[in-house]
Every structure is written in structure tokens, then in C-alpha cells.
Design goal:
Layout: E1 3-10, H1 13-28, E2 32-36, H2 47-79, H3 107-112, H4 127-165, E3 191-199, H5 203-209, E4 223-227, E5 231-239, H6 243-252, E6 256-258, H7 264-319, E7 325-332, H8 338-348, H9 354-361, E8 381-386
Antiparallel strand pairs: 1-7, 1-8, 2-7, 3-5, 3-6, 4-5
Helix pairs in contact: 1-8, 2-4, 2-7, 4-7
């Protein structure tokens, strides 16, 4: 499973024994894979400041997860025909030990081997400064994401709109990529070439009758240019003054004159625009994908650091000073075992908060002074990490 539970309990003897019991039960029952989650000793500051930070970190956590999900989706949209390779670009490179920075680190490995990045987020700084640095980093990534994807999406939309013109049936699609100069009588004061859509079952009727649909139709001037499933596109040359009469008679015979004026300059402009957009998209594809890959990694690493900060702050607020707690990362083995896993945790750590433990079983019990929904509160500190970013 790509789901993790990040929990903490006090670091005293009684609770370390409780953690051991939890590890024993979850291992024997094959409920989860558990590892210690190392969090550095931060400068605590005042409890008032921690309460404020707790709220700020909650919002930052939500924002960071939303950002990396949007970035993952952007990778899917950019890669288009190579969606099967998307996961190769959603990595946490450079997030582990120095010797592993050159390796491709998948998200699960990064979380299970998490180490605080002292160089990027110095733990000796006040907690407020660390949180502020992460918040600014993520805000900058989001701003760049919006501008880069907006430019690429505009280009992509313009290209798709042009491509749509060359799709569809003969009644709606552009004809500029089908016809050529040789198909038309051009620059004539008296003659004009029309394009007519003829249903497939009516080909022979067209050949027999087109010359007599109106006066002044040039004999043997029709030619099939192209066809689709429903019909064919034919040329016919006639005198300009009988155009309207010819259109009326053609319609009566289920032949449709397609409005089209051969403009060589316009056709050339359309083809050049298509070539330019294709070229621009190709030029932007590589740099955008590389940017997404690098910055997804940065944002993901920042997100897991936020989780570590949340555990630290909530543990101090919950268990008090001096700072003494143990954080553990649990990876449930399967979805069906999460209910049983929760029961084990609530049983093992029930002593930390008897009221909260009871309220989990009885949703009607109010927890004094607690604003959270009871379903989100447990006797131990708990945060959820979901790596199913493309769901």
C-alpha cells in the first residue's frame, strides 16, 4: 500500500514498552511494517507560539499535498502518449544521504528512510523560521508552476484547435490541407471552381447529372479530390453568374456545395502556424518536464519535512516539556487490515487519553476543549501520508 501512518508516543519507559508491544502485535498479525521516524531536536520557543504553528502547519500540509498532486497531474498531461512512464518522473531525488543523491529515489523509499535535511532546513533555527522557509519555497514553486503550465497549455490548446480543424467530416473540417492550387480555376473573371460533397451512394448520379444541374457548367470539369466514410469531395467549374442557381439545384439532389475560397496566402499562413506550434510545443516539452521532475521532488521532500514538523509540534503540545517522544512510521500491509491496526493502536495507547480512547468507540462523547472531529483524534499523535498521488 502507498499509505503511511506517522504516529508518536511519549519517550518514557512505559510508552517505549507500549511501542514494543505495538511492533510485536502488528508484526505477528502481519498488519503493518513499522520503522522509527527520526526527527531532530528543534528550538521549542513558547507554547503559545507552538499553538500558532500547529494551525499554520496544518494549512501548509494541505497546501503542499495539493501542490504535489497538481504537479503529478501536470506530468500526466505533459507526457500525453507516454502516461505509462509518468511514475519514473515522480521521484524524491537528492532527498537522502549524500552518497544516494545521484540515485533515483522512489517516494516510498524516501518516506521510509526519511532524514531531516539540515543543510536546507537548519534545525538550530527557530521553528517559525524553518516553517517560513518551507512556506516560501512552496509558494515560489506554485507560482512558477502556474506560469509555466499556463504558457504550455495555451500553446497546446491552440495546437489542438488547429488539429481539430483537420478532423471531422467533409462538412466541417478544413480543406486547406486537402486541396491544391491545381484543383481550381483561379483569377478568371467569368469562371469559378466549386467544391461539392456527394454522398457515396450518389456518386454515379453526380457524374450523370452535374453538367445539367444548371446552365453554363463546364463539361467534364468534375474530379474527386478526397473522400471519407460518408461521401466524396468533388470539384466542378462553372460560370460565376450561375453559382446560386447551381447551389439550389445541387441541394435538391442531395449534393452540398461547400463554401470555400482558395487563398494561397491564407493556406500558407495556416500551415506555417501549425508547424510553428508543433515546433514550440516540442521545444517547451523537454524543459517543462525537467522542471516538473526537479520541482516535484523538491515539493515532495518539503511536504514530508512538514509532516515531521507537525509530529514534533503536536507531540510537544500533547506530551509536554521537556521534549521526549518517539515517532514511528507504520505502513499498513493492506486496506482490509487498517481497521484492525487502528484497534491495536487504540488499545496499546489507551492509557495516554482514556476519554479520547472511549470516544473513538462512542462518537457521542465530547472531548473537552478539543475542536477536532472525534474521528480525527486519537490517544496518540497521528498523521496520514497518502502517496497515491494520481488517484
Amino acid at each position: 500500500m502507498s499509505e503511511f501512518w506517522l504516529i508518536s508516543a511519549p519517550g518514557d519507559k512505559e510508552n517505549l514498552q507500549a511501542l514494543e508491544r505495538m511492533n510485536t502485535v502488528t508484526s505477528k498479525s502481519n498488519l503493518s511494517y513499522n520503522t522509527k521516524f527520526a526527527i531532530p531536536d528543534f528550538k521549542v520557543g513558547t507554547l503559545d507560539s507552538l499553538v500558532g504553528l500547529s494551525d499554520e502547519l496544518g494549512k501548509l500540509d494541505t497546501f503542499a499535498e495539493s501542490l504535489i498532486r497538481r504537479m503529478a497531474q501536470s506530468v500526466v498531461e505533459v507526457m500525453e502518449d507516454s502516461k505509462g512512464k509518468v511514475q519514473e518522473h515522480l521521484l524524491a531525488n537528492g532527498g537522502l544521504k549524500e552518497k544516494m543523491k545521484c540515485l533515483k529515489i522512489d517516494l516510498t523509499s524516501f518516506v521510509t528512510h526519511f532524514e531531516w535535511d539540515m543543510a536546507k532546513y537548519p534545525a538550530k533555527q527557530p521553528l517559525v523560521s524553518v516553517v517560513d522557509a518551507i512556506a516560501k519555497q512552496l509558494a515560489q514553486i506554485e507560482m512558477d508552476l502556474k506560469s509555466r503550465t499556463a504558457a504550455y497549455n495555451t500553446l497546446k490548446t491552440n495546437l489542438e484547435n488547429l488539429e481539430k480543424k483537420s478532423m471531422g467530416n467533409l462538412f466541417t473540417r478544413t480543406l486547406s490541407d486537402i486541396v491544391s492550387k491545381e484543383d481550381f480555376v483561379l483569377d478568371s473573371e467569368y469562371l469559378v471552381t466549386l467544391l461539392v460533397i456527394v454522398p457515396k451512394p450518389n456518386y454515379s448520379q453526380w457524374q450523370k447529372t452535374y453538367e445539367s444541374l444548371s446552365d453554363m457548367v463546364v463539361p467534364r470539369s468534375t474530379k474527386l479530390i478526397t473522400e471519407d466514410k460518408e461521401g466524396g469531395l468533388f470539384t466542378v467549374t462553372l460560370f460565376r453568374k450561375v453559382i446560386e442557381d447551381f447551389k439550389t439545384k445541387a441541394k435538391e439532389n442531395k449534393f452540398t456545395v461547400r463554401e470555400f475560397y482558395y487563398d494561397e496566402k491564407e493556406i500558407k499562413r495556416e500551415r506555417e502556424e501549425m508547424a510553428r506550434l508543433l515546433s514550440d510545443k516540442k521545444q517547451q516539452y523537454g524543459p517543462l518536464l525537467r522542471w516538473l521532475k526537479v520541482n516535484f521532488s523538491e515539493a515532495f521532500i518539503a511536504w514530508i519535512h512538514i509532516k515531521a514538523l507537525r509530529v514534533f509540534v503536536e507531540s510537544v503540545l500533547r506530551y509536554g516539556l521537556p521534549v521526549n517522544f518517539q515517532a514511528v512510521l507504520l505502513q499498513p500491509h493492506k486496506k482490509s487490515s487498517t481497521k484492525r491496526l487502528r484497534e491495536v493502536l487504540n488499545s496499546v495507547f489507551r492509557h495516554l487519553d482514556e476519554v479520547a480512547a472511549a470516544s473513538i468507540l462512542d462518537a457521542s462523547v465530547e472531548i473537552p476543549g478539543l475542536q477536532l472531529n472525534n474521528q480525527d483524534y486519537f490517544p496518540y499523535v497521528y498523521f496520514h501520508i497518502d502517496l497515491s498521488l494520481l488517484d
